[in-house]
């Protein structure tokens, strides 16, 4: 088990008191895994598996947010060990996925989006699973279409502030080759594997969904929790069928989020379950080039230096998604407090907004949103519970620059100078600036 003191002994960053008092994802995960072990010892295998799944999901969430190298390594080892334990338990129970009598991949309802005029053609071209596919494979296909396909990403390029270079690169790699396949062939053939990397909250997932929406590609969203908690012990089969189903769609995006948690560098202490999962992914990534369908694999990671070298070779286009610059932060702030979904009034002048933008260097887009949300709460918090129950919405004071200054005392960026320098160094050696 994980060394509990490593987590209990840390000092949280300044934040609201309620948030500071809440147990961390790592604590929740540890508690669930301890519960799983107790249930397993008592013979309650089904309950133990559910506890393992819950514990792994919490630890994967903690891994996504953790930046300290030592703790990340500890989390990975704990996840791998418990994945292996849960897989063994599932095999001992003889648990198998339900068998369904499917003869072809169910048709996916495409969304109404730019380029959606091609969606009916994509559905009609979806090819049935091969006759040699087992009932198990068809059952997995059904589960993938239910749990992994995002039927309506609904994200457009305009929804993403800034990142003009990253958008251009992705349009060149994905959208234009689809529109003019006669031009993009041979040496101009687009890469079938793209890696998006950068600090947390910079819009990597949004970019992937925008690609799918703009090109009307079926969007398969896969995260470590999907593979290692929801289908614990069945990750290899899920990976194999995932790529097969995507190929049947003719044109699809497989988005692999938190890629470093799935395909980290392999080491001597690696567990069999993790090793087999990585090997299966590598085999499937190798097979993309020979697939008759147009399948693009988009990976996203906050820690590109943790990825296995074999994975990097299979994702030749590597695009750095940086923190937003001043114009992008200003555009995002305007959207947050002046946009149709703001839901608040404010008293910020243009100069006040510039002051907020200047104070949010090293903030990601998601952190800027959190900051705006915290500032928006402050007028309500000043009223107190009794007044909130009786006050008219029009009588709540507007959000002010002072509210943002107060929020800045609580909301801090994750990225620091050392981390940003590491991204720059990795980009010089392996990537492309987005």
Walk me through the topology.
Blueprint: H1 5-8, H2 17-21, H3 25-41, H4 45-65, H5 69-93, H6 119-125, H7 135-147, E1 149-150, H8 164-179, E2 193-197, H9 204-215, E3 218-222, H10 224-230, H11 235-248, E4 251-256, H12 259-262, H13 272-287, E5 294-301, H14 309-314, E6 317-320, H15 326-338, H16 350-358, H17 365-390, H18 401-410, H19 417-430, E7 432-433
Parallel strand pairs: 2-5, 2-6, 3-4, 4-5, 6-7
Antiparallel strand pairs: 1-3
Helix pairs in contact: 3-4, 4-5, 4-10, 7-11, 8-9, 11-13, 15-16, 15-17, 17-18
Written description of the protein model:
The chain is 55% helix and 7% strand. It is α/β, with parallel strands linked by helices. The chain has three domains: 89 residues, Up-down Bundle (Methane Monooxygenase Hydroxylase, Chain G, domain 1); 219 residues, P-loop containing nucleotide triphosphate hydrolases (Rossmann fold, 3-Layer(aba) Sandwich), CATH 3.40.50.300; 89 residues, Helicase, Ruva Protein, domain 3. It has a seven-stranded mixed β-sheet, with helices on both faces. Its main location: cytoplasm. It is found in: Cytoplasm. GO terms for molecular function: ATP binding; ATP hydrolysis activity; microtubule severing ATPase activity.
In CATH, the architecture of the largest domain is 3-Layer(aba) Sandwich
- What's the CATH H-level superfamily name of the largest domain? P-loop containing nucleotide triphosphate hydrolases
Main β sheet profile:
7 strands, mixed
Quote the distance from N terminus to C terminus.
40 Å
Which class best fits the helix and strand makeup? alpha/beta
Mean pLDDT: 79
CATH class of the largest domain: Alpha Beta
Number of strands: 7
Shape call = globular
Helix content: 55-70%
């Amino acid at each position: 088990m994980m060394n509990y003191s490593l987590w209990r002994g840390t000092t949280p960053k300044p934040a609201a008191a309620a948030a500071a008092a809440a147990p961390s994802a790592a604590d929740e995960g540890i508690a669930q895994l301890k519960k799983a072990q107790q249930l397993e010892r008592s013979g309650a295998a089904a309950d133990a598996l559910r506890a393992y799944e819950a514990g792994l999901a919490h630890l994967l969430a903690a891994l996504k947010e953790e930046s300290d190298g030592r703790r990340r390594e500890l989390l990975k080892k704990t996840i791998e060990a418990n994945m292996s334990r849960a897989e063994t338990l599932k095999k001992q129970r003889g648990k198998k996925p339900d068998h369904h009598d499917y003869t072809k991949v169910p048709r996916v309802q495409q969304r109404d989006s730019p380029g959606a005029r091609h969606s009916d053609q994509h559905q009609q071209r979806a090819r049935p699973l091969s006759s040699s596919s087992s009932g198990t494979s068809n059952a997995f296909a059904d589960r993938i279409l239910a749990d992994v396909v995002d039927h309506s990403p609904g994200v457009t390029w305009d929804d993403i502030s800034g990142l003009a270079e990253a958008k251009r690169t992705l349009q060149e790699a994905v959208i234009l080759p689809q529109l003019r396949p006669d031009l993009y062939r041979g040496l101009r053939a687009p890469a079938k594997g793209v890696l998006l990397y950068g600090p947390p909250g910079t819009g990597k997932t949004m970019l992937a969904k925008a690609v799918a929406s703009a090109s009307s590609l079926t969007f398969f969203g896969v995260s470590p929790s999907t593979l290692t908690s929801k289908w614990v012990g069945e990750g290899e089969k899920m990976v194999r069928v995932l790529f097969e189903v995507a190929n049947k769609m003719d044109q699809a995006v497989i988005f692999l989020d938190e890629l470093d948690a799935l395909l980290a560098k392999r080491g001597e202490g690696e567990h069999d379950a993790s090793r087999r999962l990585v090997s299966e992914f590598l085999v499937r990534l190798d097979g993309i080039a020979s697939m008759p369908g147009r399948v693009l694999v988009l990976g996203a990671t906050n820690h590109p230096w943790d990825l296995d070298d074999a994975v990097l070779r299979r994702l030749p286009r590597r695009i750095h998604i940086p923190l937003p610059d001043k114009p992008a932060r200003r555009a995002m702030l305007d959207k947050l407090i002046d946009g149709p979904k703001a839901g608040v009034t404010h008293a910020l002048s243009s100069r006040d907004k510039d002051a907020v933008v200047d104070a949010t260097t090293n903030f990601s887009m998601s952190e800027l949103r959190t900051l705006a949300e915290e500032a928006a709460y402050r007028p309500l918090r000043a009223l107190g519970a009794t007044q909130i129950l009786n006050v008219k919405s029009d009588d709540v004071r507007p959000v002010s620059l002072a509210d943002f200054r107060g929020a800045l005392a609580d909301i801090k960026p994750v990225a620091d100078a050392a981390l940003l320098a590491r991204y720059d160094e990795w980009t010089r050696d392996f990537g492309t600036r987005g």
